[in-house]
Specification:
By secondary structure, the chain is of the alpha/beta class. The chain is built from seven helices and six strands, in the order αβαβαββαβαβαα.
């Protein structure tokens, strides 16, 4: 298996300790090769990047056949139109509000415009599609993100680099309520 930062062993260990939903972001090439492995490890959601899936519809169907909910991650320059013909296979859209690769980056403001477009689109769908955002998310910008329609805030550096991580989490949770 290639070097995967948080692999199936960690997912398996987490699953044994929590009933909370586990969303595994497969920011890897050839994610189809790992769907069954992560599903069996206990993932609830498997999120892939369309750039790594030559047949996005097939990949999303495979995720659902494995018993997981299917997510699509959109990099800052990836158009939401890539979802147009797969909405019936999507349970979650993860907006990357930084270019993936390392923590501590600044939030890319144009993501807010993309979020509003996606929130409007998902509100017209028959089922629920969660909108998540990852990258530069913090206590200062989370109110605007929630107001624009985000369902899930993913924060790393804002929490782990804080002097009081619990306070940051409380503040962000208060925003989401």
């Amino acid at each position: 298996m290639p070097n995967i930062t948080f692999g199936p062993d960690l997912v398996r260990a987490l699953r044994q300790r929590t009933e909370a939903p586990l969303d595994v972001h497969l920011m890897i090439c050839e994610p189809d090769r790992y769907i069954q492995t992560f599903a069996q490890a206990g993932a609830d959601y498997l999120t892939v990047h369309p750039e790594t899936c030559p047949h996005l519809h097939r990949t999303l169907a495979g995720i659902r056949q494995a018993g997981c909910k299917a997510g699509v991650a959109l990099n800052p320059a990836t158009s939401p139109h890539v979802l147009e013909y797969v909405w019936d296979q999507v349970d979650l859209v993860l907006l990357m509000s930084v270019n993936p690769g390392f923590g501590g980056q600044q939030f890319i403001d144009s993501t807010l415009t993309k979020l509003k477009v996606l929130a409007e689109r998902t509100n017209r769908l028959p089922g629920q599609v969660l909108l998540a955002i990852d990258g530069g998310v913090n206590a200062e910008n989370s109110p605007a993100l929630v107001e624009a329609g985000i369902d899930v805030l993913v924060a790393g550096s804002a929490i782990f680099r804080s002097q009081d991580p619990a306070a940051v989490i409380r503040t962000m949770k208060g925003t989401a309520l």
